[in-house]
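Support request, please re-run this one:
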Amino acid sequence: MLVAMFHIDFYSRYPRWLFRGGDAAIAGLRGEYVCRSTAGNRVQRVQDRLMHQTIELSSLQKERFTGQYTSWLVQTRDRLTTLSYDTWMDLRYQQNRGASASFSQGAVVFDLIHGVLYEVRGKDRLRRIFRIQLDGDFPYLSFRDPANAIDFPWITFPGVFTQAELMTLRRVY
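Re-run finished. Output below.
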């Protein structure tokens, strides 16, 4: 039996932007945690409230969870778009880069920036990479499988991660 070995260039089959390298201006941020615990530190909590308007994820109203979906439905009804919901959200993701907001979940406070990739690690220590987009002060996320170059559908951020996972939150690029 003769087996031919072919050199397959994995990266040539997918868009180059999925595998882009670090930006020189952002490279210094790699590996830095983006969350901070305010448990037991009253001064830190007061400073965070004064410096940043921190939004408690559990305080977000239920209507906010369907905000972008409702906007997409209105645009499709009015025939302003013919795109699928996830394609429409992907286009939104490309806009408004750099917008940021501070959030808290229990004693964990963290900042999210629109258009940035983050990672968390669970109990199993496996990396879960996701991209963020903000609708004002409401976060949406889409998990990413870099090994297979797949971006999964957009979901709402609240309730997805535990506090322990958020303590491992890091900016990828």
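Residues 33-171 form one domain. The chain has one domain: 33-171.
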